[in-house]
Request: fold
Amino acid sequence: MSRRHSPTRGAHPGTDRPAGCEDRQPVMEVQDLSVRYGNAPALRDVTLTIPRGCITAVVGPSGCGKSTFLTCLNRLSDLVPDCRVTGSVRFEDRDILNGDTDLVALRRRVGMIFQKPNPFPLSIRKNLTFPLRHHGSPSGKALEEKVEQILCQVGLWDEVKDRLDAPALELSGGQQQRLCLARALVLEPRVLLLDEPCSALDPITGGVVEDLILSLRGQYTVVVVTHNLAQARRIADEVAVFWVRHGVGTLIEDGPVGQIFDAPRSERTAEYVRGIRG
Ligand code: ADP
Reply:
């Protein structure tokens, strides 16, 4: 794929990962986060720090609250009827769970990509210019340049430059997912939330998207939900392991990827990463 405008800034020493996650400065601090759907608790007492510029993978068996956790980080949880969230999520010096949070601004700073690619039913170009115009960003030549730059960044430019006005829904699944990433990146977010971004794609296309996620490391803070432990091991700096305890999702362990896979503190984590449980 084209890396002409890739944000990659030199390899991380000793690995092929882009640099940029060394200082582990907190960008989001989640404290005692609990979520209920109606009367049913889904997530209990999650406390987790998301470090700047790193890729944090959220793993765990189905139903342990991974997606629920992710939706709290940009308040998409507000859109679910009867969803009640308590605790705090500090981002940019404020608790985003407060009622006075500007949700449009928050979701611009904390973008989200879903499992199933969901481009707007518009042209490829409009998928990028629409959100930019909505947020009052450049017009004219500057807008066109931004479109090219962002399509280069996700490795799509060469594939679509001759058909920017074609419907986005005519793209393949992997191309649609990269366009959705471009749509989030064009708004220059600080944090990207990815919910199983490769699992609806075939392995080769999923690999392209995975490489792209890795290339974002350092410039963006990424939180990615994945059920694919091998993928978490390949791309994550930090891993948060969720589990269902007494019928409710909770965080059982988090730490650097080496700790989680090679020296986990919790027996549950050890059994999970060895494939004995979950
Ligand atoms: P995971 O992403 O780990 O599979 P989820 O966050 O999707 O877990 O789900 C956690 C729990 O919350 C599950 O018991 C699920 O059934 C429940 N849940 C998720 N979304 C909703 C919803 N919109 N309404 C009611 N219950 C939900």
User: Anything to note?
Assistant: The chain has a mean pLDDT of 91. The domain at 26-113+189-273 is CATH 3.40.50.300 (Rossmann fold). The chain is about 30% helix and 25% strand.
